[in-house]
Amino acid sequence: MNHTKGKRGIILMNLGSPDSTSVKDVRRYLNEFLMDERVIDIPWLQRTLLVKGIITPFRASKSAHAYKTIWTKDGSPLIVLSKQLQKAVQEKVDDPVEIAMRYGNPSPAVAFEALLDKVKDLEEVVLFPLYPHYALASYETAVEYAKSIYKKKKYTFKLTVVPPYFNDSGYIHALSESMRPYLREEYDHILFSYHGIPARHLHNRDVSQVQQCVQSGSCAIGGAGKNKNCYRFEVFETTRLVTQALQIPKEKFSVSFQSRLGKGWLEPFTDIRLEQMPKEGIKKLLIISPAFVSDCLETLEELEMRGKETFINAGGESYKMIPCMNVHPAWVDVVARLSSGVTQPV
Q: What is the CATH number of domain 8-165+329-340?
């Protein structure tokens, strides 16, 4: 871990969070998030009218209320957990570690400057996106945002990026170990609920490939080369490897997608499956959201709270949300290893 010792820095980059639960701060955060062309990929004028004219005015107060249900005394769970991860990784590596967010604070610019203050003659910054899977609205937007600031500031150090690690053996081990204690409980089924995306975002929007993938399920069985950067393939591969490591029978788990914003998103939808499962005899459910490595609004409010309500109201008996890896020791080891082993520049 000591190559270019003293001249490197590491940035752990996560989604982000409002500065507070006030409607004003939540509105600002939602505007930044939803105006991202990789999140809502329609022309700028239409996106502005939709986001600032329709979505944000109605959603800000509702989201602010949701944030209040998960906020801790130290602030947003996502920010708190990211700082804890930063501290844990720092204990494993010699290079200074900073955090940055795609939306909100701290920005990549703040992280870059912090590393410059800490490291004389900084030669390289390694960007570690806290997203295991490649998607336009998560991994790609985070990386491109950091790169745009890097280019705009004309920094002289090299910027390298850790690639998606959805099938990295250490990541699979860490995710499996974080799940293992919960499997000791009696359960009927495990639902792997991943963040949803529009199907058109697959395969860089190659319509023919998208249709073939979604209709035939080829993503789940195809090769990594054929499906490079295909989110659907990657989440199915993570699920396959983890269930294989934990020896979970095929009939005991399935995959779904949460947080849809409209039609044409990846199916099956998590909220619909939670309504259906009790009627199928699944009464005791474990649910996990491996698209995230840190618990956030979607895992804590959408799945742990609202998801449980949906499942129990539909006739379920027990519902347990398995937390994200957060600062699990095995996950900390993975971050330290991958962030210290990147050699290929952007």
A: 3.40.50.1400
- Tell me, what's the pLDDT at 1? 42
pLDDT on residue 2: 40
Q: Which residues contact 243 (CB under 8 A, 6 or more apart)?
A: 190, 250, 253
Look up residue 5 and give its amino acid: K
**pTM of the predicted model as reported, rounded to 2 decimal places:** 0.89
| Sequence ranges of the domains in the chain | 8-165+329-340, 169-321
Segment-wise mean pLDDT, segments of 10 residues, the chain, 346 residues: 67 94 94 88 91 92 92 93 97 96 95 95 96 92 96 96 95 97 95 88 56 54 59 93 96 92 82 97 97 90 94 97 97 95 48
Report the alpha-carbon distance of residue 2 to residue 92 in Å, rounded.
11
Positive or negative: CA dihedral 265, 323, 33, 131: negative
Which pLDDT value is given to residue 72? 92
CATH of domain 169-321: 3.40.50.1400
Cα 18 from Cα 289, distance rounded (Å):
21
CA distance 63 to 61: 5
| Tokens found for residue 95 | 């290079």
Dihedral sign, CA of 325, 326, 330, 335? positive
> What is the structure's pLDDT at 74?
92
Q: What is the pLDDT of residue 3?
A: 44
Q: At 54, which amino acid appears? A: I
